[in-house]
Amino acid sequence: MELIEQISLVDLLLAASFIVILTGLSFLERLRLEKDFLIGAARAFAQLYIVGGILVYLFATRHPGIIVLFLIVMLAVATHTAVARQTKRVRNIYPIIWFSLIAGSGITMFMLTEVIMRWKPWYRPEYLIPIAGMIIGNCMNGAALAAERLTADIRSNRQLIEAKLALGASSFQASRTFIIRSIRASLIPSINSMMVVGIVQLPGMMTGLIIANQSPVMAVRYQLVIIYAIAFSVGITSMLVVYQSYRQFFTRAHQLIDDL
Amino acid sequence: MKVVVDHISKTKQLRIEGTDHRESLNVLRDVNFSVEPGEIFTVIGPSGSGKSTLLRLINRLEQPSSGRILYDGTDITAIDVLMLRNKISLVGQTPIVLDGSVEDNLRYPLSLRKTPLPASFRSTATTHVERVGLTAAFLPRYSHQLSEGEKQRLCIARALMNEPDVLLLDEPTATLDPTTANRLLLTVKALNNALRLTIIMVTHQMEHAKLVGHHTCLLVNGTIVEQNRTEEFFAHPQSAVTRSFINGEV
Fold first, then answer.
1. Per-domain residue ranges for chain A?
2. Interface-testing mutation among A156, A160, A167, A177, with chain B (most B C-beta atoms within 10 A)
3. Which residues does chain B have with pLDDT short of 50?
4. Is B12 in Cβ contact with A258 (below 8 Å)?
5. What ipTM does the predicted assembly reach?
6. Can you tell me whether residue B152 is helix, strand or coil?
């Protein structure tokens, strides 16, 4: 495989001039975004360099324990981010999202490593880490969307839910409409991205493979595997989040709790 | 079936918005009464006296802090809660109709069961809509387009689909104009007569209690002040508070 075109530090500095020009325009147009541009650019620089350093280390050690530990850290950060996005938190939301992310992304990664891609060994970091990152990131968004939607819907439909309970509906039957809506809401981004992929823009992984001189056909196959895997993992994760979360709003006697 | 409310108290923890602070509120204090099978028992009292909470406790939408409620001699906590809510149906103050037609609404309570919809569903639905003063022509109508009075009637008919023994009505006339309210109260009376249905109705309007209630009790600040046969209750009130309430001073 040919090496891709190298980017020198000077090239990188030249690229940073995009941000410098944008900051200048912001100043001239009084957008008041100068600080945000500079902090954003600096954070992107620092975060990516740190991750780059970690990846260099992971690729060099190739130790399964350390790679799994890195995945656990990714899952923990994703859990925290998904919980932090909730405006009103459900009881036990941390363990619910933690478990759902592990299960949703874990099942998907297992299928990818053992059934579909069959990398040898399964923990090959140059494959496992970026693909797990994409899967976990999308699951995180799905989990956050699903939990947020369910909480908002149940809080604003208290009377409707209680009217159903009073007619003999179980807590599941009374919240079923909102369970379905939440799962659908979390899956819409994945469905939308499948609908427009390749038409509006080339997705990241495919672009990366093409730049790395892989054949576009192979790049397409990789991208399809990822898109399907993301849709599956988001579906599983959001279903697990919603099916565990709705119970938190009810007592065992199918009563809606007071303090939603 | 007889309903006995036995030394019921309910304390709620009210959240102070924007803080972690909570305030205790005694909504009901040592409430006692019994409702005989086939009678209409009205609970009157000013707003915030705990009337709605009382009905929610009987339907087990809430749990009492102490005391017990007996249904046909059995503590309601010993009965499967979903079964209990079929037998003791609550119709709330604001009529909540479900999306879809009137018929869809009437099908809902039966769709919750694991058994298939009975072949007699349509005739039962027609009987119940007619009982509450609507007609079979309402069945295909979109439920959200009904008037408030029609929605309230639909909610009662929907509760009847479960064939309850006890109907709990929480201010059923609250959202209705006086003429529609009176018609609905006559419907309540007719249901009680036709089905020997035990009805516990909460209202803050004395006239409504007078019109339909066999027995009436006055609930003020979560405490029962007085209870008696309705005629006696209004003709010879024993308590000074009851007299004040009847005179519109509470």
1. 1-61, 63-249
2. A167
3. none
4. yes
5. 0.93
6. helix
